[in-house]
Amino acid sequence: VSPPISDIVLHGILSWASMGFLMPVGIVVIRTLNKEDCGQRKLRLLIYFHAILQMLAVLLATAGGVLSLKSFENSFNNSHQRIGLALYGAIWVQALIGFRRPKRGSKGRSAWYCCHWILGTLVSLLGIFNIYTGLKAYQKRTARSAGLWNFLFTAEISLLAFFYLFQDKWEYLQKQGLVSGTDPSTPSHQVLPQRDNQKEVLMEPSRKSNSLGNYFAKTNALRKLFQLT
């Protein structure tokens, strides 16, 4: 007996919200930690936000897995079910690794970071791929077109990938003046007209002092001349 379409749709929504939205967004959020100007308060908020998103993703994926075991025929004779089963185990392993995060500067910090990063990236990519296989299975089982959902999901993932890759280029664009609107070829501290004006202002007192000195010198010379005569 085939499961109700409502259960299939609910399973798809839970899987999309977990592995197709919350997990990629959490990765994009934690990506901002690479910024040099990230303070301690912002750092802590980003870590908490990342952890909340990932835990929500784990809970929603678990709910989708329970629904699948309860309502669907789980013969595991197709790639969607096999990948889904592997993902349900991997996301819980990833969550446990995240809670076992060592302190910065400790001995096992580097090994933990590599393991957490590699496993998280693989789980996210595999989850995105499994959503496409799920849409294909939905179309096959319900005889309904999934073209619109494929297009919307592809647009969402492309947008998240753009923000993920754009993180490294934002500071570079600011330094080049392409974001702030400044011209990188003319530094802002170089203002030649002001320097010329400053020279003219500085030269005017000296000219006045020289003219006054010449006047007094001529006056003294005339007085001495009249005294001699």
UniProtKB/TrEMBL annotation:
Bilayer-spanning residue ranges: 13-33, 45-69, 81-99, 111-135, 147-166
Record domain Cytochrome b561: where: 1-174
Keyword set includes Ligase: no
Record keyword Amino-acid biosynthesis present: no
Membrane topology summary: Multi-pass membrane protein
Name of the protein described by the UniProt record: Cytochrome b561 domain-containing protein
Predominant location category: membrane
A GO cellular component entry from the record: membrane
Top-level taxon in the UniProt lineage: Eukaryota
Reported cofactor(s): heme b
SMART domains referenced in this protein's UniProt entry, alphabetically: B561 (SM00665)
Single GO MF annotation: transmembrane monodehydroascorbate reductase activity
Keywords annotated in UniProt: Electron transport, Heme, Iron, Membrane, Metal-binding, Transmembrane, Transmembrane helix, Transport
Taxonomic source organism: Escallonia herrerae
Protein's cellular compartments: Membrane
Pfam families in alphabetical order: Cytochrom_B561 (PF03188)
Matches recorded under Gene3D superfamilies: 1.20.120.1770
InterPro entries: CYB561D1/2, Cyt_b561/ferric_Rdtase_TM
